[in-house]
Design a protein that fits this description.
ATP hydrolysis activity
Length: 79
């Protein structure tokens, strides 16, 4: 959606419904603007927690491993 296609309605435009607005902020906006990064040592349960999230919700998981990122960066910069 381009900026010109946005409806232009803000939370302040909605009178009342404070609890519902807060639920929207926490349940929809926050995860979109601040995605969760699971990190920690091997065996800490990161993969299992990610699998639970996928099974219990309809969200997808982006799997990223640090050593892969280092190799891509290494190749891109010709180092």
């Amino acid at each position: 959606m381009a900026d010109t296609d946005k409806p232009g309605v803000m939370y302040d435009d909605i009178n009342g419904c404070e609890a519902q607005k807060q639920e929207l902020r926490e349940g929809v906006k926050l995860p979109l603007t601040h995605p969760v990064l699971l990190h920690g040592p091997p065996g800490a349960g990161k993969s299992m927690r990610a699998k639970v999230i996928v099974c219990e919700t309809s969200v997808g998981i982006l799997r990223h491993e640090q050593h892969q990122a280092c190799m891509v960066q290494w190749a891109e910069y010709g180092a």
